[in-house]
Amino acid sequence: MSKIVILGAGISGHVAAAHLRRKLSKQHEVLVVSPNSNYQWIPSNIWVGIGRMKSEEILFPLQPLYKKKGIGYKQAKVSTFHPEGDSETEKPFVRVEYVAGEKKGQTEKVTYDYLINATGPKLAFDMTEGLNPGTNKAYSVCTYTHAEHAWDALNDLIQQMKQGKKAKILIGTGHAKSTCQGAAFEYILNVEQELRRHNVRDKAEIVWIANEPQLGDFGMDGMLLSYGNNIMKSSEMVEMVFEDRGIKWIIGAGVNKIEDGVAHYETLDGEYNSETYDFAMLIPAFSGHGFKAFDKNNQDITEKLFKGFMIVDADYTPKSYEEWSVQDWPETYQNPSYKNIFAPGIAFAPPHAISKPRVSKNGTSISPSPPRTGMPSGITAKLVADNIIDAINGKNNLQHKGSMGNMGAACIASAGYGMTKGSGISITTFPIVPDYNKYPDTQGRKLSKTFGEIGLAGHWLKLALHYAFIYKAKMRPFWWLIPE
Amino acid sequence: MTRRISKSKRFYMMNPIIQFFKFIYLSIKIMLIVAGGHGGTRKANY
């Protein structure tokens, strides 16, 4: 009998738990440890943030589902890792602290045979002075509660605009090293459409601010994509959309301080500027959780497990941008020191950025961190689950591999909500990490699998995916037929 | 120079009938790309 412990119940942790439970017999234990009581379909947060969806439509409680499916669940957060056990406990374990219920505040050793670290990122609002969701008129859509608060504030502003107030709305990244520009991109287009729906668009100036060196970088060095019969850069596509919607933009901007209605930032040119606003939605930097690890003698071995995020089978040798290779990226997400620990999704430490690093004239690093969104999170979680199942069955060859340099991704970016007035920008990219050796003439990507489409169908597609993935996450009949 | 969305293109983008067929086409195309497999990169002929 094996015990598999999964830390985190986001897209990655939940996918791993679901596949492990389905494919392993009941003699093996699958246990999820998460401080969250609900599963949330994060890509739909933007619709909560414009008041077109309720939180209840994008989440469901984890405990009843896990109980029904035979998956153990502890509402707790991990504090330390002990991959060799300690003087009292022979088996490896993690120490967890309960965050709710009768055991709230109590700690416990949770032993394991295999550990999947799917703790995702820490939303590091504290890395930008004054950036805290709900204060200084700045908000976030990173969680459903943040998105609810954002809608409350935006709705207030819309009501004031209906009374004649002129307003300025600032949306983008809130730190020089933020990632997840895609979520902010979706939100700005949705906000713009909602203002038109409420007949107050003429009262608002909408500004995009981002650490991207050019529009459409998305932390992936941009992309060359096929668009209808044309070939277009992602920067040209985003510029076309922003022009069409009357959205202004500031790029190469590292936001470093937020005051009440003022965002201070530094540009790649080394200038220090500020932008006033009445409502802002700024994506924070992501960081690791600062976990500590100890060996059986209680000596600190954090550097064997963590490099901010968790160390996996990537090549972390420091290299210049010109020397970066697609082969640097991990394939199995296995920790090299402890072979029974894996870190799929956003929990693994990337070997380096994807976008070319850029430094301002003052020496400040201003460039996007690499994105690792829902689809790769699900794919990497499934392959980790499959490798663990193989290992339990006596096959230790890690035959399931999925490098982001040999994996496609679909990004269906909502550009406005509505069955007849909605819009979406459907973008696929293959591979996610550009392979400049294999595809030297098309900026590292396979053009037949890297395309963009704009239109109403994109909105329907995103809505269809919303319902399909919530169906899948609820493990309804034949859920496994829906790909990650 | 910035590309612009023309009137005919906007009609194409927002016409529900055209977009219905586009929805079917995109669903299949994206499914093929997403479900088209993934793998490692460290062997010579991946």
Question: What does the model show?
Answer:
The complex is a heterodimer of chains A (484) and B (46). Chain A has 484 residues and is an alpha/beta fold. Chain A has a domain at 3-123 and 287-362 and 370-392: FAD/NAD(P)-binding domain (3-Layer(bba) Sandwich), CATH 3.50.50.100. Chain A contains nine helices and 28 strands. In chain A, the strands form nine sheets. Chain A has a five-stranded parallel beta sheet. Chain A has a five-stranded parallel beta sheet with strand order 11-20-12-13-16, with helices on one face. The model of chain A has no long low-confidence stretch (mean pLDDT 95). In chain B, 59% of the residues lie in helices and 0% in strands. Chain B has 46 residues and is mainly alpha-helical. The longest helix of chain B is centred in the middle third of the chain and has 19 residues, at 16-34. The mean pLDDT of chain B is 85. The A-B interface holds A 232, 236, 239-241, 243-244, 326-327, 329, 331, 375, 379, 383, 401-403, 405-410, 412, 420-421, 423, 426, 428, 430, 435, 449, 451, 453-458, 460-461, 464, 483-484 and B 2-5, 12-16, 19-20, 22-23, 26-27, 29-31, 33-36, 38-42, 46.
> Can you tell me the residue ranges of chain A where pLDDT is under 50 for at least 5 consecutive residues?
none
Give the helix proportion of chain B (percent range): 55-70%
Largest interface between protein chains, with number of residues from each side? A-B, 44 and 28 residues
Which range does the strand content of chain B fall in?
under 5%
Query: Would you report the number of β strands of chain B?
Result: 0
Q: What is the residue-averaged pLDDT of chain B?
A: 85
The backbone outline of chain B, from C-alpha atoms, is flat
- Radius of gyration of chain A equals 22 Å
Content-based structural category of chain A: alpha/beta
Strand order of the largest sheet of chain A: 5-2-1-9-25
Helix content of chain A: 10-25%
